[in-house]
Here is the input.
Amino acid sequence: MFLRAHKQGLFLATAGFLTIFGLACSDSPTSPGGGVRGPVLSDSSKHYTYRVVEEFPHDAAAFTQGLVIDSGTLFEGTGLNGSSSLRRVDLATGAVEQQIDIASQYFGEGIAVYNDRIVQLTFVSNKGFIYDKTTFESRGEFSYPTQGWGLTHDGARFIMSDGSANLYFLDSESLQRTGEVAVHDDTGPVTRLNELEFIEGFVFANIWFTDLIAVINPETGEVSAYIDLTGLAGSIDQGQGNVLNGIAFDADQNRLYVTGKRWPKLFEIELIPDGQPAPVALQRD
Here is the structure.
């Protein structure tokens, strides 16, 4: 059953099991730590862990819902009624350089950049906002029939999640739905798809209330691999919904960044093939 509890609340589900799939290989430079810099994955492993390359300050009050790097600039969308915003953030210092707050009746969610616009979803209001990328001035609004969770753009269309096992495709100009795909692994639907990032042909998706990122083929919906970020939070308090959420890829530098809701740090990570596709326990509806 699709989980409809508030995204700050506790989640109740039955235990499940994930089996890891393969992903087509691509050449990539390796770091001194032996891992692959950025998200380019090898076909020799279907399960990935990580190594922290560098840590950066992050606003510990930011309930991160969307994260994206565009031409070297970090943008962040935050949530919670009365605290939702769109921000331009200095990656090195974590300082908020520009911010626009959303009216308190809206709970901000995922963001995506397309050309000169930034698009931001809201949780249960069935409404999204469009901004000028430079000035943050309003460029309009749009509606959708589901909840809004994650958002990304693949160069041709927006891709949206709503907490279910579906990804929805939206026209780049009208933002109207043009299609959808059901996400699955060999045990069935993969639900609670949250923050999204399109990386080298695949959608990387946080799975809410887990330390997993699913790597999804957007054409078939198949989960091609899982990335396990267990332990990344360290001593960070993950109570009250302060979970892993936020994936940003700097395509120019081939660097992958992740953070979480109210985390005081943002991490650059490299992906390390596990070697054996060990099963990963996951709470599941």
In short: Residues 61-259 form a domain with the Methylamine Dehydrogenase; Chain H fold (CATH 2.130.10.10). Residues 1-40, 276-285 have pLDDT under 50 and may be disordered. The first strand starts at residue 14 and ends at 18. The CA atoms of residues 22 and 244 lie 24 Å apart.
